[in-house]
Amino acid sequence: MATIVYAMLTSLDGYIAGPSGNIDLPVPEEELHRHFNEEMRRTSIVLCGRRMYETMRFWDSPEREIGAEDVERDFARAWRETPKIVFSTTLEEVGPNARLVRNDVEAVAKSLKGEATGEISVSGAELASHLARAGLIDEYRLYVHPVVLGGGKPYFQSGLSLALKPLGTERLAQGVTLLRYAPVEID
Questions:
Q1: Do residues 183 and 46 lie in contact, with contact meaning Cβ atoms separated by under 8 Å?
Q2: Angle at 30 between CA 29 and CA 32, to 5 degrees
Q3: For the Bacterial bifunctional deaminase-reductase C-terminal domain, which residue ranges apply (predicted)?
Q4: How many domains does the chain contain in total?
Q5: Continuous H helices in the chain
Q6: What are the pLDDT tens digits along the chain (187 aa)?
Q7: Which domain holds residue 158?
Q8: CA dihedral 37, 43, 48, 51 (to 10 degrees)
Q9: C-alpha pair distances (Å), 174 with each of 27, 38, 167, 171, 177
């Protein structure tokens, strides 16, 4: 059985994107990037919402092999090799190693969790919120960057209520602190 993990870089005030919708967080430098490369290599499947998938398509481009640093090429390879399930009602097609799913987010995630092994990564706050409400996320990883964005797209969507227990913390490069939590079953 696989573990579903929602992991994102976030600002100190809890936003994964700034007020304009752009990812206004500092770009990971080599040491932090290596950490994310390892995370991607451990991932057996990526679940993406449309917006996050379109953002991450950057890593599919051939330019990632030509002008990029070694650490970026390594991430691009890991991204391309990892199967992706993209949940969207508006996309007509998806790129290589990706499958488009238009509905039944919950059923697809439950099925994958039962059939796959390793970690299934959730990319995108809205998709994560949907899966959290269904009780399908096993771990939350907040990579807290020491910046304040003052607004934007939050890591946890408005109206989502969760009881969580700490699993651990880790200090990473660029002042980033990884906070790990698991849901607590409420009787």
A1: no
A2: 70
A3: 3-177
A4: 1
A5: 30-42, 50-56, 63-66, 70-81, 105-115, 125-133
A6: 999 999 999 999 999 999 988 888 999 999 999 999 999 999 999 999 998 899 888 788 766 665 668 898 889 889 999 999 999 999 999 998 999 999 899 999 999 999 999 999 999 899 999 999 999 999 999 999 999 999 999 999 999 999 999 999 999 999 999 999 999 976 5
A7: 3-183
A8: 0
A9: 10, 17, 22, 9, 9
Task: Write out the two tokens for 173.
Answer: 């490069």
Q: What is the C-alpha to C-alpha distance for residues 119 and 91, in angstroms, rounded to an integer?
A: 25
CATH of the domain at 123: 3.40.430.10
Q: Determine contact, residues 147/25, Cβ cutoff 8 Å.
A: yes
pTM for the complete prediction?
0.92
Please report, as a single letter, which amino acid is at residue 128.
Answer: A
Instruction: Give the pair of three-digit tokens for residue 120.
Output: 């299934």
The residue type at 18: G
